[in-house]
């Protein structure tokens, strides 16, 4: 069987592959502390679970509109207005199977062969493959620590073929946020150069002190050039429910829902119904999880600050620490992938090598795990750094 050139050229998610390997080891009874995947360890809040059971009972088990059920799009429009100062009508919103799907469909909807998407790196690995699959050209803009994107960085990389600038603040894998003054300059740049902006705001609810700002709220003219994407996975611990959304100019959103209607029909109907409850009911569970993430973040930052031979930028948001191990490479371990492999084999701790984020020499640790696991990880990583001959 000959596979297509597209399938052969695609790199499956390295994070999913590593996670599958760790789960295999755990099934064999090997107690691995798994900090490689970016998903909350919390259960989905009970009111959302109950809303889903009720939705099934109430018959939300049929196809929905391709764009998503109207009531949900209205609830999302209200959320975007209240939380993000963004004025979208419900027709300018499409509900998708996760934020991943929203991003992918956006690229399919707007990119022609050779159109460039400017992606600040280190970045979430999927962006690059999504752009490739959609026929565009991902152009990585390599940031230096502290990884804080500026308008000047973008200006250096923009070409005549640039069509989209991709923004992910707080970022996966660094947790770093773009400063408001830079967001304003970036908005001006997008307007001036007649570009589109895709703003992936999935970590919006997980910030540690700095206020979150949606770039599309900063000026009137940037709203119609921005597609804001967000989802439920991280804030509401709903990774497996597969629900996200995109809001943007009507023509693009209609194209996205048209594509979705042919590819997947829609997001799952009863999940959509419970998505209304997640947004409109008491947010106590969200606050509880936010508080816990904040405690874990402070613990991890404080413990890693004491470790030798590593460096990192304290995260402003998300639930990751992106750690430089460059000083330990070149001898026994040639690459950060080798280093992470040895950490897994010797200390039974799984973290994701920087190569997965197009940034070798680093690893990403997810602190969306129990304090018990984080303590084990701190001890094991410390032991590994001190005892290993590099
Ligand atoms: N965007 C970023 C930056 C992510 O880190 C992730 C998941 O790791 C996603 C999007 C995908 O989220 P979803 O589960 O909503 O597809």
Secondary-structure-derived class: alpha/beta
- Could you report the average pLDDT, rounded to the nearest whole number? 95
Q: What integer value in Å does the Rg equal?
A: 21 Å
User: Which ligands accompany this protein?
Assistant: pyridoxal-5'-phosphate
The biggest beta sheet, please?
7 strands, mixed
Give the strand line-up of the largest sheet: 2-8-7-6-5-3-4
The percent of residues in helical segments reads 40-55%
Return the string of H and E elements: HHEHHEHEHEHEHEHEEHHHEEHEEEH
Shape: globular
| Straight-line distance between termini | 44 Å
- The number of helical runs is 14
Percent in strands: 5-15%
Q: Uncertain spans, ≥5 residues at pLDDT below 50?
A: none
β-strand number: 13
Give an overview of the whole structure:
It is globular, with a radius of gyration of 21 Å. The N and C termini lie far apart (44 Å). It has 390 residues and is of the alpha/beta class. The strands form three sheets. It has a seven-stranded mixed β-sheet, sandwiched between helices. It has 14 helices and 13 strands. Bound molecules: pyridoxal-5'-phosphate (PLP).
What is the secondary structure topology, with strand pairs?
Elements: H1 5-9, H2 14-27, E1 33-34, H3 46-57, H4 70-84, E2 93-96, H5 98-110, E3 116-121, H6 126-133, E4 137-142, H7 151-157, E5 162-167, H8 180-192, E6 196-200, H9 220-223, E7 226-231, E8 244-247, H10 250-263, H11 269-280, H12 284-305, E9 311-312, E10 320-324, H13 336-347, E11 349-350, E12 352-353, E13 362-366, H14 371-387
Parallel strand pairs: 1-11, 3-4, 3-5, 5-6, 6-7
Antiparallel strand pairs: 2-8, 7-8, 9-10, 10-13, 12-13
Helix pairs in contact: 3-11, 4-11, 5-6, 5-10
Pyridoxal-5'-phosphate binds near residues 99, 172 and 202.
């Amino acid at each position: 069987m000959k596979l297509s050139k597209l399938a052969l050229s695609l790199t499956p998610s390295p994070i999913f592959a590593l996670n599958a390997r760790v789960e295999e080891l755990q099934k064999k009874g090997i107690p691995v502390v798994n900090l490689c995947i970016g998903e909350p360890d919390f259960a989905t809040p009970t009111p959302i679970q109950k809303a889903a059971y009720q939705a099934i009972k109430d018959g939300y088990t049929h196809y929905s509109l391709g764009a998503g059920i109207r009531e949900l799009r209205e609830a999302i429009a209200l959320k975007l207005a209240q939380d993000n100062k963004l004025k979208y009508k419900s027709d300018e919103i499409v509900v998708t199977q996760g934020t991943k799907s929203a991003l992918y469909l956006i690229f399919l909807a707007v990119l022609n062969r050779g159109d460039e998407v400017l992606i600040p790196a280190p970045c979430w690995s999927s962006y690059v493959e999504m752009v490739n699959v959609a026929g565009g050209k991902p152009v990585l803009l390599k940031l230096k620590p502290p990884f804080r994107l500026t308008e000047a960085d973008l200006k250096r990389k923009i070409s005549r073929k640039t069509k989209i600038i991709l923004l992910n603040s707080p970022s996966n894998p660094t947790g770093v946020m773009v400063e408001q003054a830079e967001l304003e300059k970036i908005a001006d740049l997008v307007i001036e150069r007649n570009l589109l902006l895709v703003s992936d705001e999935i970590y919006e609810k997980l910030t540690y002190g700095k206020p979150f700002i949606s770039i599309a709220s900063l000026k009137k003219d940037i709203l119609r050039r921005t597609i804001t994407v967000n989802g439920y996975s991280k804030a509401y611990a709903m990774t497996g429910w597969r629900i996200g959304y995109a809001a943007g100019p009507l023509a693009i959103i209609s194209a996205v829902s048209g594509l979705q209607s042919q590819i997947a029909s829609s997001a799952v109907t009863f999940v959509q119904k419970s998505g209304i409850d997640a947004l409109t009911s008491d947010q106590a569970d969200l606050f509880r999880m936010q508080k816990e993430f904040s405690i874990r973040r402070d613990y991890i930052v404080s413990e890693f600050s004491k470790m030798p031979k590593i460096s990192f930028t304290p995260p402003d948001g998300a639930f990751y620490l992106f750690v430089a191990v460059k000083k330990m490479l070149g001898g026994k371990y040639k690459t950060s992938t080798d280093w992470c492999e040895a950490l897994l084999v010797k200390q039974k701790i799984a973290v994701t090598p920087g190569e997965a984020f197009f940034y070798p020499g680093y690893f990403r640790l997810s602190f969306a795990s129990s304090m018990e696991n984080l303590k084990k990880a701190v001890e094991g990583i410390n032991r590994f750094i001190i005892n290993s001959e590099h």
